Amino acid sequence: MIRDAQENDFSAISEIYNHYIRNTVVTFEESEIDRNEISIRVEKVKSAGLWWLVLEEGSKIIGYAYATKWHERAAYRNTVEVSVYLHHEYVGKGHVAKLYDELFSRLREKKLHVAIDGIALPNPSSTKLHEKFGMEKVAHYKEVGYKFGQWVDVGYWQVQLNA
Asked: Quick check: 114 and 158 in contact, CB under 8 A?
């Protein structure tokens, strides 16, 4: 079941995200975050009129997706950045597609124009997933992140949601 995130989901969300902070370069955050920080981030998303969704299997939160403002300036008001994370034990089972289907549907209904996502590279599975949703690579920044003693490139993909 996919639904809007609620306060009792924040600990599970932080646990999912902290795995990626500790073990991967898919996020450039280096310090783990707690449920209070998730609460602040979810509220910021919701106050912008956007969504933070969770995917629940049984009573367990196994993933989440959300959209944020691309930038604060008014001219960017129809562009959002999307993100999705799954509990590491559920990767590769089609759950990301379910989350993105719901999120992109809501973004289209809201008449937003463009969705953008940044991907730490190389990441063939994430690249393939985003291209499945019609996203195309529009930028490649070399060595803009530094984590775990290595420089990391970032690519940006985007899709036009509404004409």
From this structure: yes
**Nearest-5° Cα angle at 39, 112 to 116:** 30
Give the CA count within 13 Å in the CB-facing half-sphere of 34. Answer: 1
How many Cα atoms sit within 13 Å of 76 on the Cβ side? 11
- 121 and 155 Cβ atoms separated by less than 8 Å: yes
- Please name the amino acid found at residue 21: I
The Cα 78–Cα 69 span in angstroms is: 8
| Residues 109, 103: Cα–Cα separation, whole Å | 10
Q: Which residues make beta-bridge pairs with 129?
A: none
Can you give the C-alpha Rg of the chain in angstroms?
A: 15
| 101 sits in which H/E element | helix 95-109
- Tell the residue number behind the tokens 């004409």, with chain if given: 163
Q: What is the pLDDT along the chain (163 residues), one digit of tens a residue?
A: 999 999 999 999 999 999 999 999 999 999 999 999 999 999 999 999 999 999 999 999 999 999 999 999 999 999 999 999 999 999 988 899 999 999 999 999 999 999 999 999 999 999 999 999 999 999 999 999 999 999 999 999 999 999 7
Q: Which residues of 11-24 are buried (b: 16+ CB within 10 A; e: fewer)?
A: ebbbebbbbebeee
